[in-house]
Specification:
This is D-alanine--D-alanine ligase. By secondary structure, this protein is an alpha+beta fold. The chain has 13 helices and 13 strands. A hairpin with a 6-residue loop joins strand 8 and strand 9.
Length: about 325
């Protein structure tokens, strides 16, 4: 099928994760972009009839726009692989690696990209060793300020910036609200950027980095998805050599994790111009306030055309057996 032919595309959005509403918004934007190009789009939630629907309807491709565990931890993607229906995005094994922030940090660091010093603590560690001694050891070994976050998840849910020792216990409680394992990471001061990486057949390409500047405080869940709470600069206000280093770090991270088709790599650029890897997202936000659509526009491209090109690439990869 030629890339310009109309495709039967199933857009998956919603689900039962904490990021359900964001997923629905992303999915509608993807569907709108594909519909505008003449593709036949079916908008679906991942429910008890999904797998039988895919088996009976056999669409050309599935476009998952599922955020959170339901779409990014690899489980659903593994089932999609078993159906034999092509789908956009990373395969199950790579998704599992990226979904675990500590695992992703380890693999990306081994590939040569800087990542902040950190410690990963399951909730059971506090029960076994005592909360007081564990927190004292953390504070003795990692310099403030710190970032505490769930080891899995996205959209900054459960994330706290700790600037004083008295804030750490509450930050741990907030992180454990979203999972049984927390990551405590030294906060690197600098410019926060996010880099969308796309691959439509010519290899992973970093789109222009987007600089993130919250109007107040940190880049929280609300700041991400409520218009006017964050200033975005696309492209980021970086010197040319720093922009190149950021793009290189993002593509290196994408490759190190074995990601496919699209990703968003989050980084901090310090005063020396060094990019520090924070995390990778196998399904970036695609809402009206999200970073990847801004990066696509900054690259001089149309969002719908990029989403369609990714769908065509997923079909091509399935035909050639490319993993």
């Amino acid at each position: 099928m030629a890339q310009n032919d109309a495709l039967d595309i199933v857009v998956l959005a919603g689900g039962i994760s904490h990021e359900r509403d964001v997923s629905l918004r992303s999915g509608r934007r993807v569907a709108d972009g594909l519909n505008a190009l003449g593709h036949r789009v079916t908008f679906r939630e991942p429910d008890g009839t999904l797998l039988s629907f895919l088996e009976s309807s056999r669409p050309d491709v599935v476009w998952p726009a599922l955020h959170g565990a339901s779409g990014e931890d690899g489980a659903l993607r593994g089932l999609l692989e078993l159906t034999g229906v092509p789908f956009v995005g990373s395969r199950a094994d790579a998704s599992r690696l990226a979904w675990s922030k500590p695992t992703a940090k380890t693999l990306v660091a081994r590939a040569g990209v800087s990542t902040p010093a950190s410690v990963t603590l399951p909730q059971d560690t506090f029960r076994e060793l005592g909360a007081g001694s564990v927190l004292a050891t953390v504070l003795g070994g990692l310099e403030l300020p710190l970032v505490v976050k769930p080891a899995q998840g996205g959209s900054a849910q459960g994330v706290t910036i700790v600037t004083g020792t008295e804030e750490l216990p509450r930050a741990m409680v907030d992180a454990y609200t979203y999972g049984d394992v927390a990551l405590i990471e030294r906060k690197v001061e600098g410019v926060e950027v996010a880099v969308a990486v796309v691959d439509t057949g010519e290899g992973p390409e970093a789109l222009p980095a987007v600089e993130i500047e919250p109007v107040e405080g940190a880049y929280t869940f609300d700041a991400r998805y409520n218009a006017g709470e964050t200033r975005f600069y696309a492209p980021a206000r970086l010197e040319a050599d720093v922009s190149e280093a950021v793009a290189s770090a993002a593509v290196t991270a994408h490759r190190a994790l074995g990601l496919r088709h699209l990703s968003r790599i989050d980084l901090i650029v310090d005063a020396a111009g060094t990019p520090w890897f924070l995390e990778a997202n196998v399904l970036p936000g695609l809402t009206e306030t999200s970073i990847m659509p801004q990066a696509i526009v900054a690259a001089g491209r149309e969002t719908g055309e990029v989403y369609a090109a990714l769908a065509a690439q997923a079909i091509a990869d399935a035909r050639t057996g490319v993993l």
